[in-house]
Every structure is written in structure tokens, then in C-alpha cells.
Amino acid sequence: MQYVQPLFRPPSEAESLILQVTLGCSHNRCTFCSMYRTKRFQTRPLKQVEADIRESRALMGAGVRRVFLADGDAMCLSTRRLLDLLAPINAAFPALQRVSAYANARDILRKSDAELAQLRDQKLRLLYMGLESGDEQTLRHIQKGATPDEIAQAARRAEAAGLAVSVMVLIGLGGKERSLEHARASARVINAMAPTFTALLTYTPVPGTPFHDELERGDIELPSPQGSLAEIRAFLADLACTTYFTCTHASNYLPLRGKMPEARHGLLSLLDAAIRGDVPLRPEFLRGL
Questions:
Q1: b/e per residue, 237-247, with b = 16+ CB within 10 A?
Q2: CA–CA separation, 47 vs 85, rounded Å?
Q3: pLDDT tens digits, residue range 224-276?
Q4: CB of 169 within 8 A of CB of 200?
Q5: Strand partners, 43
Q6: Rounded Cα gap, residues 47 and 53, in angstroms
């Protein structure tokens, strides 16, 4: 099995079998993202994916429990195509617990509730969605291609169909100027979603992206490390839904995690201590994508 590089997966899929069912991202216009800029979006032929499944079974045996469908948004595929992919995955791996994928809000919204339930029944159980920001002005600026309301509706529909949703927010994406607006609006949208998981990452500039070019020109300024902590604090202070919250990605200055809303008080206290300088932050040389 040969992957078409570059290949990405969420950190929580480290032990999953990765099957590349599409190449690149069908949207691929977010100004902050460099992941698939070197790829032209394509759907891989079903026969190629089936050959990868057979090879994976031969190499890894029947005990594979998790499969991640790459690349950027496998949910752009039709429900029929996804079911045609899930059937041989389930047949090859009888111990399979879940299949997961990145998902674009509008691709979810194009599927009916019945279609989402069909996919869930074939063990598509977890979708990773990028909210990025609940601030509509920030989403327009980064050319996300969806509104906060559309993203929230997509997450609610997926959860209602029995698919767990993990939603990502990017700290710093609103720049220094809109830092608190970005944080509070993002919390409001997450509250409207009540996703199973909520993950915060701290935006890291990537050369070759339009957002990086704006930073280089001085058109936008990122929050300082202390400003990033203040942004996270504002987000957590307004986060009221039940969700498992993580801020443990290598891009973050301070690792945080806990079941919300029960963990809020302790996390806010830890953030306050870090803002005062009583808790050390992750040094820059240890931060990364």
C-alpha cells in the first residue's frame, strides 16, 4: 500500500489504520491551512481502496479496531460510495470498533438524517470538524466556506444520528484585534453544538499560506503567549455545554483537559496561575504542528 503524500491524521488516530479514500481537500481554500496545497483533489477509485483493504488485512490481520478515512474530507463522497467503502472494511476487520474521518459542514448537511444513520450503522462513528472560529467575521476572513450556524447545524445533525463529533477551535485565528470576540463567539457556537469532544489548538503560522503572508506584511498580529492564555480563559469561562475538552496538542502553551462543565473551575484556576506566571508554559522549541 502506497500513500500519496503528504498524509495527515488527527493525533487521536495514531493507532488507526489509515485508508486514503480521497486525495487532498475538496474545499482547500482556508487561508491558514497548508495541509493539501500541493494536491489536486481526487476521489480514489473503489478498486484501489479495496486493494489497500486486502493488503492491510494480509499485513495486520483481522484485529484492526480503528480505521481513519483520509484525506481531508471523506464525507464529501456520496453516501452510496461511503457505504461501498465501509462494507469491505467491516468484512475485512471483524474486530472493528469505529471508522472516523474529517468532515466539512456542508458535506454533512447534504446528507439526510437517514443517510447519516446508515453510515453510523456501518461503524462510521466519529467525525472531526474544524469550527476554527465561531466569529463570523473571522470565518469570512479565513475563507472557511461555511458559517458558524451551518457548522453548528451539521454537528448537531451528526450527533443526533449517533455519530460522535470532535470539533476544533484555533486559538489566535482572530488575531490580537479580535481575540476575545473570537474566543467568546467560539464558545457560543460550541454550546449550540454540544459536541462529544472539543479541542483547542493554538494557530501556528505556516509559510506559503495567505494567512502567513498577512502576518509577514503586518496586516494582522497574533496574540502573545499570555494573550493566547487569556483567549483560552475567555473561551472556557463561556463554555457551558457537556463536552470533553482538550487543549493538549503540541501547539498549545499549556496542556489542559477535562469533562465540561465539571472541570471548568479547576481549569480556570490553572489558567489564572499560568497567566500570573506561577505555572511554566511549554517553550517555543517544544511547540509544533
A1: ebbeeebbbbb
A2: 10
A3: 999 999 999 999 999 999 999 999 999 999 999 999 999 999 999 999 999 99
A4: yes
A5: 22
A6: 10
